[in-house]
Amino acid sequence: MLGKIALLMASLLFALFLAEMVFRLNLAPEPAYVVSSEWWKDRWLRKRKGKNPKEFVELDRELGWIPAAELDDHPYQGAHISTNSANMRGAREYTLERTGAPRIVTVGDSYTFGQCVNDDEVYGGVLEELLPGSEVLNLGVMGYGQDQALIRLRREGLPYRPDVVVFGFHGSNMRRNLLSFRDYAKPRMRLVDGELVTENVPLPTPMQVILDPWPPRMWDYYVMAGQKDILKRPEVREEMEALSEAIVHQMAADAAEVGARLAVIHLPHPAWLKGDDPFGLPIIKRLCEGENPSNLICPTALDRFREIVVDKQTQSIHYECHFSPQLQRAVGEAIVESLREEMPEVFGPAPAPEVATAG
Questions:
Q1: What is the DSSP string of 183-234?
Q2: What share of the chain is helix, strand, coil (3-state, %, to 5)?
Q3: Total number of domains constituting the chain
Q4: What pTM does this model have?
Q5: pLDDT in tens, 179-226
Q6: Which domain holds residue 57?
Q7: Can you give the pLDDT at residue 352?
Q8: Are residues 103 and 134 in contact, defined by beta-carbon separation less than 8 angstroms?
Q9: 301 contacts 331 by C-beta, under 8 angstroms
Q10: Cis (ω within 30 of 0) for the bond into 202?
Q11: Dihedral (C-alpha) 283, 285, 290, 291: value to the nearest 10 degrees?
Q12: pLDDT for 359
């Protein structure tokens, strides 16, 4: 009897081993997309690389990934990308010492980084154009969650002691806050007794991810099977929104410690131009309307976007690949308008309108 049980157990273990090998050798069908760390990890393991092109990325044990340094007019998706020696978008170099010029740090994801537009077309470049003499340090990174934006701001933005931090708020980033793996392993923040606590750091090396035996790959597939429509679960939505609001408030508090203010600008998906953004605008309204303990600056580009994107044809043009140069400029114009209104002592008042004279 014991022999039969032992044989049965051995057979079961061998079957589980074979099943695990099927998953580890990527012989199982690629699962349909779900919002989960397990899906993104499976995708990375299948391709042995992150989503972003290899030449754009340097892996980072604290942030996951950052743009490669000193890219020189690198062609990508119809645009050219440069980065400076500090892994910031744009070739311009900045010093930690203040020069007396107004200084702005921008943080966010690919919309802030400026995917699909040239260095001077991204809204950070537009700010430097519209605010002559200013310094704008672009710390946006493709694929970032809001948690990563906060960590990069703390580590690489606030030491420059900016006057303003601009946070590009895109609704999809709220979902990324729930992940510990996306284009690569990433930090994961949780709220513990009302405080943000960072987990999953230092991040594993690629070889550690590949060789890690736990959890088994078949367990990841089992988890993915139960994650369909995960964002519709009330407890998940509640955590996602609470994390997002806490991160924004923490950005404002950290900025205030170096004498800066936080400007939060909503970057809308095209489907949300005609109505409320279910993944962003309600939180922006809660943060910016009524009593605002974080003293935020809240520029909005929605009206400008609606003037540009008037139908499906213009939508396909301006949202073909992230934001078109025209939409990026609209974001920059909205930010400049708010900064001049809220901080005229730093950025100067809005220029007086030109008065036509009789010829």
A1: SSB--EEEEETTEEEEES-SPPPHHHHHH--SS-HHHHHHHHHT-TTGGGSH
A2: 45, 15, 40
A3: 2
A4: 0.92
A5: 999 989 999 999 999 999 999 999 999 989 988 888 898 889 888 888
A6: 31-347
A7: 63
A8: yes
A9: yes
A10: yes
A11: 40
A12: 46
